[in-house]
Amino acid sequence: MKRSLILGLTALLGLASPAAHAAQEILNASYDVSRELFIDVNKGFVPYWKQKSGEDVTVKQTHQGSSKQALAIREGLRADVVTFNQVNDVQILADSKLVAKDWVGKFPHNSSPFYSVHSILVRKGNPKAIKDWSDLAKPGVTIVQVNPKTGGNGRYAVLAYYAAGLEASGGDTAKARELLKGILANVVVFESGGRAATSTFTEREIGDVLVTFESETSAFAASGKFEVITPSVSILSEFPVAVVDKVAKKKGTEAVSKAYLDYLYTPEAQEIVARNFYRPRNEEVAKRYADKFAPVKVLEVDSTFGGWAKATTDFFDNGALVDTLLKEIAAAR
């Protein structure tokens, strides 16, 4: 009897020992059109982490516009990591002391493990003969895109239009403004998020053109029903990542959260990134997938617009250029 009691206590102590690791769970709060990408990433990360640490992990995902995600986290969403599509949205969390102040330097390439550009999706046969951004300003062309007032996807689009105007005119801001106004006048739907914009174009069959990330246009063109038009110039679309330190520390997930973001830079994950039509940072992977990505002149927000803070003030704040142009367009109708 006494021996049985000792054995029973030993078994219970063994179950409670540190060697018996409980499975961890982390939440990745990401932008709207990254669902498929991170489903694939998570399938790779789970065995990677198991081999590396001996621990099991479950990675859950939540998706909406990254600006909305930032606000949700600030209001209490317990995300361990963020994988956003705009620097400003991570900075909101840093300013709220949820993410490290020096988050940009925590991971390589300014904490952006992959990148993209904005491109154009048209219907099979390209009935409106779209070749570049300037064609979007022509009469009779109808456009679907994300609302630049609410989503990073839409902001990249606006900056791409304006940058194309600058490139074509040798830096003439009046002509760049004119091109931007002409394109915005042809937008028939400003959607709240990237996937909603894609659904409006591909399922509801609204619009001649969808403007969104190259990863999205390429994925949907694979169906054979659509074609991708890569413009001559576009804006570098970065996808910044960060650990939500305040949340991860409380949940005890700091190590696995950092490892998750580190994993995005591994050759294995960079292959996953490339297969999902994002441009990888790893040079060897980029060479292997070079034929998947059309050449394009890529301009950076910092060098072309003075950084995201200035671009937001100049283009997207209340009363800034986008609001001004939309009012002018409405008044002319």
UniProtKB/TrEMBL annotation:
<dbReference type="GO" id="GO:0042597">
    <property type="term" value="C:periplasmic space"/>
</dbReference>
<dbReference type="GO" id="GO:0140104">
    <property type="term" value="F:molecular carrier activity"/>
</dbReference>
<protein>
    <submittedName>
        <fullName>Sulfate ABC transporter substrate-binding protein</fullName>
    </submittedName>
</protein>
<feature type="signal peptide">
    <location>
        <begin position="1"/>
        <end position="22"/>
    </location>
</feature>
<dbReference type="InterPro" id="IPR005669">
    <property type="entry name" value="Thiosulph/SO4-bd"/>
</dbReference>
<keyword id="KW-0813">Transport</keyword>
<dbReference type="Pfam" id="PF13531">
    <property type="entry name" value="SBP_bac_11"/>
</dbReference>
<keyword id="KW-0732">Signal</keyword>
<comment type="similarity">
    <text>Belongs to the prokaryotic sulfate-binding protein family.</text>
</comment>
<dbReference type="GO" id="GO:1902358">
    <property type="term" value="P:sulfate transmembrane transport"/>
</dbReference>
<keyword id="KW-0574">Periplasm</keyword>
